[in-house]
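4.2 Preliminary Data

To establish feasibility before requesting continued support, the project team ran the inverse folding procedure on a target of 81 residues. The structure was first converted into the token representation described in Section 3, and no sequence information of any kind was made available to the design step. The complete token record follows.
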């Protein structure tokens, strides 16, 4: 018996609810993949840094690819700690 659930270590770059698909960039890939889904659960967490527009802080720098480009702590990648 199988639940048909797959864990993907990566970042969602685009989500299309009508077509039930998402563009994802796997952790160690340079390109994006399109995957389809029946149910989509979004677990985004919370960043609370009132002095930064993305809510990041030294204790929790951002993990999102586009935001890391402008981060004060771009050299700290929480995904590998």
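Position-by-position output of the design step:
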């Amino acid at each position: 018996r199988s639940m048909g659930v797959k864990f993907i270590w990566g970042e969602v770059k685009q989500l299309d609810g009508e077509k039930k698909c998402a563009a994802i960039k796997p952790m160690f890939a340079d390109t994006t993949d399109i995957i389809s889904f029946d149910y989509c659960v979004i677990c985004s967490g919370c960043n609370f840094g009132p002095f930064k527009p993305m809510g990041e802080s030294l204790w929790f720098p951002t993990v999102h690819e586009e935001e890391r480009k402008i981060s004060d702590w771009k050299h700290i990648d929480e995904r590998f700690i």
